[in-house]
Design brief:
113 residues, mainly beta, seven-stranded mixed beta sheet, four-stranded antiparallel beta sheet, 11 strands, globular
Length: 113
């Protein structure tokens, strides 16, 4: 079916930036919507950003103006550029392949001074 591998997480100070990437296997990536979700300890997994197969996007209110989702269908990758990071952005970030309801293993993002 599909395998998703996230990368790019790490430790960053408030106000800093990170770029997350998700590499997907399979030939159907280009026709599937993709999303980024995150989950912090003690909280439910929450929606962060969405991108359709055609490139239309949607964002959670908490990240609008700070995060940008993009995709490269030729390389079967989806990225999340995160700017002006805040401590409340600390979470494990997951890549979601909507066409098959598949999830990656997650990558840790920690925003702390």
């Amino acid at each position: 079916q599909v395998q998703l591998v996230e990368s790019g997480g790490g430790l960053v100070q408030p106000g800093g930036s990170l770029r997350l990437s998700c590499a997907a296997s399979g030939s159907i990536f280009k026709i599937s919507a993709m999303g980024w979700y995150r989950q912090a300890p003690g909280k439910e997994r929450e929606f962060v950003a969405y991108i359709s197969s055609g490139g239309s996007t949607n964002y959670a209110d908490s990240v609008k103006g700070r995060f940008t989702i993009s995709r490269d269908n030729a390389k079967s990758t989806v990225s999340l550029q995160m700017n002006n990071l805040k401590p409340e952005d600390t979470a494990v970030y997951y890549c979601h392949f909507l066409g098959l309801s598949s999830w990656g293993q997650g990558t840790q993002v920690t925003v702390s001074s």
